[in-house]
Design brief:
- It is a single chain.
- This protein has about 290 residues and is mostly helical.
- It has one domain (about 1-290): Na+/H+ antiporter like fold.
- Helix content is about 80%, strand content about 0%.
- It is built from 15 helices and no strands.
- The chain has helices spanning about 1-20, 25, 35-45, 50-55, 60-75, 85-95, 100-110, 115-140, 145-170, 175-205, 210-235, 240-250, 255-265, 270-285, 285-290.
- The radius of gyration is 18 Å and the shape is globular.
């Protein structure tokens, strides 16, 4: 377990580094990110049984919804120390739903993968309402938000892989076990490409003094660290598995959604905050992975 966790931290670090240094190459993966996430989700869901969903505690979901959709936007108010568009980017990033990769990291760190999938779906659906309202209250702007596209992506990236994996587990048990033998290795490779393409997509839009970008990164990472510690300790009221998933679901936000909304609604000046958040949430996975070993 310890060696696997160290390996995972190196994979996350490699994906981020490649995205920062070889961003032009990373842009090649951008059109394929949804498909890579689908495959990653499929491998993760192969380890989940339908009974796992019935064991999810409703109290955990309510705590998670508060942390993800209420606490995180409130925490982002610290970003008001920056100029308005940087604060706008921080608020947008912190207000987005949990990322699809939450399920993968929950599985990799021995958390509750079924809970992670439920939280991803619920927060994504609720944020169709909460995200525009939060941005309207916080910065006085009604964001351009394609709810239909978001639901379609959710079906494509989460629901279809989940149903496919459950069907294969039920009707082709031996085949699913054979696929799982190579699942961890392939998932790690996919994760590198996803991080590489995701970071490169944001870096490509940044036009800012690197000193200011570093300060934004430090502040966002500090805020995310607070969120990580609070969510993990709240989760321990239920179980260690739930605590791990709660921490990851609170930390890992849908950065792709934030980048799309940010560039369409506010322009390139919000991108430094969005990219800093994307980097920060993945960088914090490294100490989290090592801590949980």
């Amino acid at each position: 377990m310890a060696s696997r966790n160290i390996g995972l931290s190196l994979i996350v670090f490699s994906g981020l580094l490649l995205g920062l240094i070889f961003s032009q190459i990373g842009l090649f993966f951008k059109p394929f990110l949804a498909y890579l996430l689908m495959i990653l989700m499929f491998f993760t869901c192969l380890k989940i049984d339908l009974a796992d969903f019935r064991r999810i505690k409703i109290e955990v979901i309510f705590v998670a919804l508060f942390l993800i959709l209420v606490f995180m936007p409130l925490l982002s108010l610290v970003g008001i120390i920056f100029k308005p568009l940087i604060f706008t980017g921080i608020l947008l990033a912190f207000s987005c739903p949990s990322a699809v990769s939450t399920a993968f990291f929950s599985d990799a760190l021995k958390g509750n993968s079924s809970l992670a999938i439920v939280l991803t779906m619920i927060t994504s659906l609720i944020s169709i309402v909460t995200l525009p309202i939060t941005m309207l209250i916080g910065v006085g702007t009604m964001i351009k938000f394609d709810a239909f596209s978001m639901i379609t992506n959710l079906i494509q990236i989460v629901l279809i892989p989940l149903l496919a994996a459950i069907s294969i587990r039920r009707y082709f048990r031996r085949a699913s076990e054979s696929v799982l033998k190579y699942g961890n290795f392939l998932s790690n490779i996919l994760l590198i490409f996803i991080l590489w393409g995701g970071v490169a997509s944001g870096i490509n839009h940044i036009e800012i003094d690197m000193k200011e970008f570093l300060v934004i990164n430090l502040v966002i990472t500090f805020l995310l660290t607070i969120a990580l510690l609070i969510s993990y300790n709240l989760g321990k009221m239920f179980s260690r598995k739930d605590a791990i998933t709660l921490a990851i679901a609170t930390l890992m936000k849908n950065s792709v959604l934030a980048l799309v909304i940010g560039i369409i609604t506010f322009g390139s000046e919000v991108m430094p905050a969005l990219v800093a958040h994307l980097i920060g949430q993945n960088v914090l996975l490294i100490p989290l992975v090592l801590f949980l070993r």
